[in-house]
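Hey, quick one: can you model this chain's 3D structure?
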Amino acid sequence: MSDARSKIQIPLNDSWRHAILPSDATIQQTIGNLNEVAIQIVLVVNEIGELVGTISDGDIRRGLLKGMGLSSPIRDIVKHTPLVVPPGLERDLVMQLMAANKVRQIPIVDERNVVIGLHLWDDIMSPRVRENVMVIMAGGLGTRLRPHTETCPKPMLPLAGKPMLEHIIERARLEGFHRFILAIHYLGHMIEEYFGDGSDLNVRIDYLREDAPLGTAGALSLLYPLPGLPFVVTNGDVITDIRYGELLDFHGRQDAAATMAVRQYEWQHPFGVVQMRGIEIVGFEEKPISRTHINAGVYALDPNALSALKSSAHCDMPTLFERLQASGRRTVAYPMHEPWLDVGRPGDLLTANQIIAEHGKVSR
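Sure thing. Here's the predicted structure for all 364 residues.
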């Protein structure tokens, strides 16, 4: 059992890792596991950690009714074709799968069918309270959104009747975040007057007040005291259905100083492309599609990453990542697939208003 378990990649702080049993376990061991772990499922793996199947209370009862004893091996009661999902599947889709299949647990497996996680209905519906701080960069001038931002800070522009900053806070609160720090500068008094200490939203809000614009990372140099745990940073003009908690959990598993959420961006060339070697034409490609990963403006950082910043000095987030890399510290990307909008231009503001008014979130 220890050999199999050692080869399984387990997310931090997930009790389900104790619900893993080898395929030669007995019914008595399985009953004990179900009682001890109390997540109503046992994950059965082979000697190399691949998922063989699952067992529930119902499977055990049916086995005992057929005459099996407590010392009988579980191989005859294992459900060999359980519903599984790959990592990174959107939470809303997982919920739909659970509801459609009337299950409360879905194992997460990698491309080798090795268990790397478990979705639990109770966790999805009632995420745990997180003591991690979320810092929201809300001090930008919003130049590209003029004239909308001439008398209103960009994060306070309304989306479906409430400031986009409020949408971000409410989204994070649903995932258990309750401590927020807002970095403010341009018309920052309007943000403070609206949110205050956060009590109206049942959260705690503190402020970093920039005397001059410090960039998407520079304001973090004003943090005092430093957060005691890894924390999330997001731009105040990014509206997304990303799971901030899952980003934070991913960051913790990677043992990185900094994690950047990235999103695939597709761009189609408007013309046919001529492929050449010197002046020789060697091929053609009609309006090719280029795919790249872009910075999504959402990050997870360890407190020690802030040592790369100079107090009250301007620094953008990509520069912070470069400094961390240069000092030998690990930086990683978190590929996100959830809907995402960078509300940076008037057209983006119009689009975001239309989508959120219709759907209540960024999902289309």
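One thing worth noting: The domain at 130-359 is CATH 3.90.550.10 (Spore Coat Polysaccharide Biosynthesis Protein SpsA; Chain A).
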